[in-house]
Amino acid sequence: MISATASAVNLEGELFKDLMKGYNKNVRPMEKSGDITQVYIKMTLTNLISLNEKEEALMTSVWIEMLSHLFIPDITQHHIKIYFWSIFLPFNENCICLCSNKPTNYSFFLFSLLVCSVDGQFEVALYCNALVSPNGCVYWLPPAIYRSACAITVNYFPFDWQNCTMVFRSQTYSANEIELVLKEEDNHTLEWVDIDPEAFTENGEWVIRHRPAKKVINTEHTKDELEYQEVVFFLIIQRKPLFYIINIIAPCVLFSSLCLLVYYLPAKGQSLLYKCTMSIATLLGQTVFLFLIAKKVPETSNAVPLIGKYLMFVMSVTTMVVMNCVIVLNVSLRTPNTHIMTDKVRKILLNILPRLLRMQMQPWTPNHDRNNVFLVPCRRRSSMTLITKAEEYVMKTARSELMFARLKERNGLMKSVLEKLPETARQQSNFQNVSEWFLVARVIDRVCFIVMTMVFFIGTIGIFLMGHFNQPPSSPFPGDPKKYLPPLNNLTDITENGVVADFLG
Questions:
Q1: Phi and psi, residue 372, nearest 5°
Q2: Contact indicator for 255, 285 with CB cutoff of 8 Å
Q3: pLDDT tops 70 at residue 252
Q4: Which of 63, 143, 268, 328 is deepest in the core (most CB within 10 A)?
Q5: Nearest Cα to Cα of residue 442 among 285, 196, 267
């Protein structure tokens, strides 16, 4: 058994040498001078591995299928040789394998390269065998893992979609020698990237919306230039934002909303200092989120990502909250010695605004005389005790001495009262003015709370609605209603096999 297999291998090698005797791969097989050789290309996607936004590189695992019909001068003789040797060799009589580390050593057409590669690997990952039929058909299906350039549009990150292209072009022959053509199957030109439902692996971050393929003719070049014709495979993919919503957006929104809670601290004393401290801590946390986003997106000045715009927005809101706290602190600590409050300010901040804001405050009345001093009457002592003590004192003291003593005491009492009267009035006036400045600070604090809350929620909803309405186009190319998808019967068969329609565009 082993010897028979070894003998078959030797015979296959002898046949291979005999068929390739005198073959020159640098000579393009053609019957007449000026004939153009058609090369059919098809790409089958097996896995969209990743899209590195920082490096702007798309990594895919594909199968590149290439087919060409070459001219064989002595086709009858070669067919007889293959048929004769197929009696002894374990392979199909209709084709022969070009068994080599590089089939390009024996076949001229295996030339198509990915011209948009970012890692310098323009060729396939594995040089598998090529099949050559007696009628001149050369078939090659190598696997490849490509890292192609993909320009990233960061305007709506992480609610974005990207249009990545893979461009294949000949680097050896011009359009006067070969013609690149998309492969045809079942009387349909494969104007799309093929997806095998049994071999395709879903990507956890991206979903394929459209996958058209086109042959592009660059009219600015001539047919003698290699850039004249190329085959372009498009992958229009949309990001799944759930990961970023859970890990970045939701914590950022909740963390930023804490800056609104500082308005619930009283606008008095050390509570105002706690307000500023809490707001600044929130601002520092938002800066950390901004650094995390900067490490994810490309370093470009063309656009600002949507999540970056939101972080700048909430940082601006937090900065305004800190400014509000400083202003309220300044107002609440004012005194009549430094600032004078006019009646117009009292009417607006102590009457109109509290009533509109539903604040429980005693309204200010303009008829109230602020210069009057209302002394609180002392508690009356018992009348019988006072009368008894007065009679005893009068009986024991001489009338003249009692008269002069009362006069002296009355003069001293009046002098003391006159000295203390301005100080008492001034203290009561200061207390009333200080209380008014504190009430004004409370009103300003409540107004700032309402304004900042409205700005925060309206801005948050508006910014993220921009990302929600950023959807990929309904057709791959604007103005072209063609879907560039397999026929409906093929889609029905694929859907029945269990592949989600999103993978198919």
A1: -70, 145
A2: yes
A3: yes
A4: 328
A5: 267
